[in-house]
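Milestone M4 deliverable, item 7.
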Amino acid sequence: MNGWDAALTAGAGLLAGGVNAIAGGGTLIAFPALLAAGLPAVTANITSSTGLVTGYAGGALGYRRELAGQAARLRALGPPAVAGGVVGAVILLVTPGGAFKAAVPFLVLLSCALLASQTKLGAFVARRRAARAASLATNPIAAPAAAGAAVAASSVEDARVAAHAVVQAPAAAAGSARADPGDGAPVAAQPVTWPTRAGVFLAGVYGSYFGAGLGVLLLGVLGVLLVDDLQRTNALKTLLSFIVNAVGVVIFLASAQVAWAYAGILVVASAIGGVLGARVARRLPAKALRAGVITLGVTVAVVLLIRDI
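Output delivered:
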C-alpha cells in the first residue's frame, strides 16, 4: 500500500460512514475505492464488509430506544439472519474469483436499484401499515381519517408520522399490545411468521455475499410482513443488518482473505464518518446524497463492464 492508496481508502471510509448514517449505500463507495487501490474483487468485497461493520454497530446502538420491546422479534429473526450471513459468506468464499468479478457490475447495478427504491419503499410500507391498522381499528371515525393522511403522505417522514398515529391509536383502544417479559416494553401481538423468517434469511444471504442494499431488502421484508411504527421497523432492520454483517465478517476473518491494512483504515475512517454524518444529517438532504451515491454506483458499474469487454 502506498500513500495514495491509503488516502483513497481513508477518504472512501469517511464518505461511506457518512452516507450510511444519512442515506445508506456506503458499500458503493468503499468497494470501488478498494478496487481502484488494486485489490482483487473478492478481497475488496471482504475487506469492505470487514471495515464497515462498525458503522452497523453504531447504528444499532443509536436505535436502542426504538428496539425496546422487540426482544421476541429478535429471538425469532436472529437465527435466520445468522444462517443467511453464514450461507452468503460461504458462497462468496467458494465462488471463483473470475466469476465474482464478472458478477460485480450487475451486483452494483442491483444495489443502485435498491437504493433508488428506498424512499418509495419506505412510503409504501408506511401507507400499507396504516391502511391495515385502520381496517382493524375499533374507532370508525379517527382510524379512517388517519389512514387517509398516511396514504396521502408524499414523503417517508410524513407517512411515518401518519402510520405511527394509526398503529398506536388502535392498539391503545383495542388492547392489542402486550408486555414482553424480556424487557417489559410493549410490543405488537402479531407473531413473526415463517415467510418473514424466510425473507430475512434470503436478505442475509445477499447481504453477506455482497452487502450493498441489505438494509433496503430487510426494510421491505419487515415493513410488508410486520405491523409496527416505521422507526421501530427501521431499528430492527439495522440490528439485523449488523448481525448479518458481523457473522459474515467472522467467517471472512477465518478465511485469511482480509486486507488488514485497508480494513483497519476503513474501520477508523468509517466510524469518524458515521459520527460526522449523524451531525450533518439534519442539514444535508438525504435525497440528494442518495442520488449522488447512485450516480457513482452506476458509473462504477459501467466502467467495470467496459473494462471487461
